[in-house]
Amino acid sequence: MSDFRGLIVAVSGPSGVGKGTVLARVEELLEQANPGSVGHSISVTTRAPRGQEQDGVEYYFRTREQFEQMIKDDEIVEYDTYVDNYYGTPAEPLRKMVMKGQDVLFDITIEGSLALNRKFDVDTVTIFILPPSMEELEMRLRGRGTETEEKIQKRLTQAKEEIGRAGEFEYLVTNGDIDTAAREIVAIITAEKLKASKNIDTAKALL
Amino acid sequence: MSDFRGLIVAVSGPSGVGKGTVLARVEELLEQANPGSVGHSISVTTRAPRGQEQDGVEYYFRTREQFEQMIKDDEIVEYDTYVDNYYGTPAEPLRKMVMKGQDVLFDITIEGSLALNRKFDVDTVTIFILPPSMEELEMRLRGRGTETEEKIQKRLTQAKEEIGRAGEFEYLVTNGDIDTAAREIVAIITAEKLKASKNIDTAKALL
After folding, report:
1. Given CB atoms, is B188 within the 8 Å cutoff of chain A?
2. What class is the A41-100 domain?
């Protein structure tokens, strides 16, 4: 499988659905099968480094001017602002990881997934994670025990809006059981790399 | 997974590449995971039954007039003639197996794969199996020990022509190792069923 380019795996889904846990398990399975095969995207930010933070480790630290230039150069795939600072996903390191054959997993908003897909097209697969039922999603949100009733209701309303957009994704995976969902995502990654559109050079090389 | 429709898995590849062996292993893996999940297509023929052969078991036995009517009614997906008799794949039993959630595996010619894909569209996945190298394919053909040098050369020429058409398939799988190739095909089947285009009702049912 090391002949293949890596894949950008953009995973979205409602709050509480368990994206983070499923993706951690996916990473474990991929690394077991092929150590070093998972790359990690490091965000670019305009906020100042804190304590021991190093450029290119926790974040790429850039000035506001540099960040805005990167946006103009189409070198930021998607970004957001938080407390007056920019946070974004830089394109160039992603491109390099894919060319090296590394898969990069993203737990990301719907807009973030769609932006990755627009920018990296055939090298990206978009997956939406569904809860087994709305009742189960509500239970998981309440299970955290940290949120007010009002906040839970707000999250459920938002979850329904997001699930209504599931059709904008290429694949839907239901997280009833973490291991099953993770194995389904690994199957999607395997299958995507076997597509003739990505793989035709293997056939040409035989002739 | 039992909520899903079945999938028609059309597998082609050059003579000697090991399609039959790989598909037998795929069937084993699918049946282990989900007993009864693999359906078998029975051909229609105009030849007379022999010995204990029963209609609907070894073949569907039909008259030439019936067969030609089935062609006109678009109820034969693909057919061929051999010793003055028709042999074809009937559409209706396939449709029923898919609706019941059964997967149906075909070891079939390139034209047969493409015909299945045209007829059953979203319910079909087409896979072309490649040898790891032409030298390995030649060794496998010679390993049979039953064919003349002339026939082996003819098969190799034909293999190259067929590999040149690999791009007409959706997925390419290299058969270097039977178990790896079989697991890749199982991953393709899993992923195909998770496509949002086939699966959007799961999301709608939540809302």
Report:
1. yes
2. alpha beta
Task: Compute the nearest-CA separation of A163 from chain B (Å).
Answer: 6
| Closest C-alpha among B115, B142, B114 to residue B128 | B114
**Residue B3 has what pLDDT?**
63
Which chain A residues have a beta carbon less than 8 Å from that of B199?
171-172
Contact B19, B109 (CB under 8 A): no
**What would the pLDDT profile of B41-90 be if each residue is shown by its tens digit?**
999 999 999 999 999 999 999 999 999 999 999 999 999 999 899 999 99
Instruction: Report how far apart the first and last C-alpha atoms of chain A are (Å, whole number).
Output: 20
* A142-151 contacts at long range (C-beta below 8 A, 24 or more positions apart): A144/A16
**For A180-197, what is the mean pLDDT?**
97
Q: Which CATH superfamily is domain B40-100 in?
A: Guanylate Kinase phosphate binding domain (3.30.63.10)
- Interchain proximity A164–B207, CB inside 8 Å: yes
Look up the CATH architecture of domain B1-37+102-207. 3-Layer(aba) Sandwich (3.40)
In angstroms, the CA A122 to CA A31 distance is 23
Order of strands, sheet of B124-130, starting from the edge strand that comes earlier in the sequence: B38-39, B103-107, B8-12, B124-130, B171-174
pLDDT: which is higher, A83 or A90: A90
The verdict on a CB contact (< 8 Å) between B203 and A131 is no
Query: What ipTM score was computed for the predicted complex, to two decimals?
Result: 0.92
User: Touching check for A139 and chain B: CB below 8 Å?
Assistant: no
